[in-house]
From TrEMBL:
Protein name as it appears in the record: Iron ABC transporter permease
PANTHER family: INNER MEMBRANE ABC TRANSPORTER PERMEASE PROTEIN YDCV
Membrane topology: Multi-pass membrane protein
Coiled-coil intervals, chain numbering: none
Gene3D superfamilies: MetI-like
Compartments, as annotated in UniProt: Cell inner membrane; Cell membrane
Family in the record: Belongs to the binding-protein-dependent transport system permease family.
A single BP term in Gene Ontology: transmembrane transport
Organism: Leucobacter massiliensis
Any one Gene Ontology cellular component term annotated for this protein: plasma membrane
This protein's record includes keyword Oxidoreductase: no
Residues annotated as domain ABC transmembrane type-1: 90-288, 371-572
Length: 583
């Protein structure tokens, strides 16, 4: 621009001084007292909820196992860890999680490439369908793999029922989605210029990927792997249904010790081992996620996805075959067997039993009543998780200048993720121990259904935060500062910049919360009252009962639950934004 000339009011050159001025104003102005109070309340409300309904119950259950006659007694540690079975269970937990992580990475990377780097008709629909397995209830998935590989199943000849292989396959069923979305969202925003330069210099397609693309993807791959390991190591329903006592992990062993033997001391000691596994996984995930976010911020938005070519055929073939065998086949087997009777004839009797159950079924009411109850509870749980998750995401997206505040937010972020890794069994039993007149209130919450949506909201809360937080962190700080320089207060900035940016990601978070709450089984199985089952609890009762027709009715109920969860997730996926807010 020639010297002495003036930039147009709307030009980029004119906007730069305003942003710089806003930066100086924002850095020098002390925070207003009411703003400090508002942000304090935004952090205090979710923190109080977590402390009352999560930390206190879990800590109380653990403390119960380390007290005897009102005194601290740590002798249970040596006793439990001196048993060969305890180490066997811990070893099986780590082995199952490690194998599931490896399989999920091997199958998730081709899926990430196909769905995020290639452009073809139906790609958006496939992304939505790939999300469905992650939110399917564990009861449904366990029953689906049993229908596929168990007695009478189309693949029963493989002899994989009650084996390590089927447990790993079922865990990968869930977690391929985690890898595909986490790595794919990162991959979609990578600049392809370095890869193209390597190709120009003579590197082949595979060599360019190994030497250029793979190192760039390393933070996202490692972050996805740590999340998959966390989810797999804390799996309850899958291992309980498909593994039984022989392939028990720490989660199911805590359940067995608590429910069958009332051995709170043994359960508490094993909870310590689980906390160690979860803590390590969360620490690694948080560090690698931060590295991934920083890497993405240094790059421009991704180039447009390319049309598939012949060179992409092997990757597409791996993606198609793995999806059909691992995720489509179990669901189709579940659907087909729900439409057959014990003799193998096609029938709708299993579905009619949901409306008018025979007297021999272990149900106090029609299953359709459990469907309505589950929907109401899931809606309430999703609303709680969304309100708390939005407050948490807003607080955690702040970038304070003080190192103490930054470290405090990092600790707070880890606390928010804990419900995702702590045993749902531990949470449910802890709520039963502590919610008799909590805080001196003359109300026994254990006799009401109020604890069920609370427990489900706790399970869904980390997913809501992880969906919203990347979107808020992606907002440029200059936008907030420029708005402040023009006289906008914090509430105005929130209303005009931050909330509109959340936009459709809030709908995706709501879908996650609803689907996860709808299928929650571990904590709900402790808190549900007789005669008022939720749908997952009713399915477990039907599947495990020996009455004629009970198994078929359980299969039909599992199909209904799968359809509800899938529909809610597909509707939410239509609200997905540009790839931020994946997990």
């Amino acid at each position: 621009m020639p010297r002495g000339s003036r930039a147009a009011p709307g030009s980029r050159s004119a906007a730069i001084p305003r942003v710089e001025e806003a930066s100086r104003i924002g850095a020098g102005d002390p925070p207003r007292p009411w703003a400090v109070a508002a942000w304090t309340a935004a952090a205090a409300i979710p923190l109080a909820f977590l402390c009352l309904f999560f930390l206190w119950p879990v800590a109380s259950l653990v403390a119960t196992g380390f007290t005897a006659d009102g005194r601290f007694d740590a002798s249970g540690i040596a006793e439990v860890f001196g048993q060969a079975r305890s180490w066997r269970v811990i070893g099986q937990t780590l082995a199952q999680a490690a194998l599931a992580t490896a399989v999920s990475l091997a199958l998730g990377l081709p899926a990430a490439y196909a769905l995020y780097r290639l452009d073809f008709p139906g790609r958006t629909l496939l992304r939505g369908l790939l999300t469905v397995p992650f939110v399917l209830p564990t009861v449904v998935v366990g029953v689906a793999f049993t229908a596929l590989l168990g007695p009478g199943g189309p693949l029963a000849w493989l002899g994989l029922e009650r084996s390590l292989a089927v447990i790993v396959a079922a865990l990968a069923f869930f977690n391929v989605t985690v890898v595909a979305r986490t790595v794919g969202a990162f991959w979609a925003r990578l600049d392809r210029s370095a890869e193209q330069a390597a190709r120009v210099l003579g590197a082949g397609r595979v060599r360019a990927w190994l030497t250029v693309v793979l190192p760039a993807l390393a933070p996202a791959i490692a972050s996805a792997a740590s999340l998959v390991f966390l989810f797999a190591s804390t799996s309850f329903g899958i291992v309980l249904i498909l593994g039984g006592r022989e392939f028990a992990n720490v989660e199911t062993e805590i359940y067995r010790l608590t429910v069958q033997f009332l051995d709170l001391r043994g359960a508490a000691v094993l909870s310590l081992a689980q906390f160690a596994i979860v803590g390590a996984s969360l620490l690694v995930s948080a560090r690698l996620r931060s590295a991934g976010e920083r890497a993405v911020e240094l790059r421009e938005e991704a180039d447009r996805a390319q049309r598939p070519g012949l060179a992409d055929l092997p990757v597409l073939l791996v993606f198609a075959v793995s999806t059909l065998l691992l995720q489509v086949a179990p669901i189709l087997a579940l659907l087909a067997r729900s439409l057959r009777d014990r003799e193998g004839a096609w029938t709708l009797a299993n579905y009619l039993a949901l409306l008018d159950p025979p007297a021999e079924l272990p149900l106090d009411e029609p299953v359709i009543a459990a469907v309505g109850r589950s929907l109401r509870i899931a809606l309430l749980a999703a609303a709680i998780a969304m309100v708390l998750g939005l407050l948490l995401a807003l607080v955690l997206s702040r970038r304070p200048a003080a190192p103490v505040l930054r470290r405090g937010l990092a600790v707070f972020d880890g606390l928010v993720m804990l419900p995702l890794g702590v045993s749902a069994v531990t949470l449910g039993f802890g709520l039963l121990l502590t919610m008799h007149r909590p805080l001196g209130i003359g109300l026994d919450l254990r006799t009401s259904a109020a604890l069920i949506p609370i427990a489900q909201a706790l399970v869904a809360l980390p997913l809501v935060v992880r969906t919203l937080l990347p979107v808020l962190r992606g907002i440029e700080q200059q936008q907030r500062l420029a708005a402040a320089s023009l006289g906008a207060g914090p509430l105005t900035v929130l209303r005009t910049i931050e909330l509109p940016m959340l936009g459709r990601s809030a709908g995706l978070a709501l879908g996650f919360a609803f689907a996860v709450s709808l299928g929650e089984f571990g904590a709900t199985s402790f808190l549900v009252r007789p005669g008022e089952q939720t749908l997952p609890v009713a399915i477990a009762q039907l599947i495990g009962h020996q009455a004629p027709g009970s198994y078929g009715a359980g299969l039909a109920a599992a199909v209904v639950l799968a359809a509800l969860a899938a529909t809610s997730m597909l509707l939410a996926e239509r609200l997905r934004t540009d790839g931020r807010g994946e997990f």
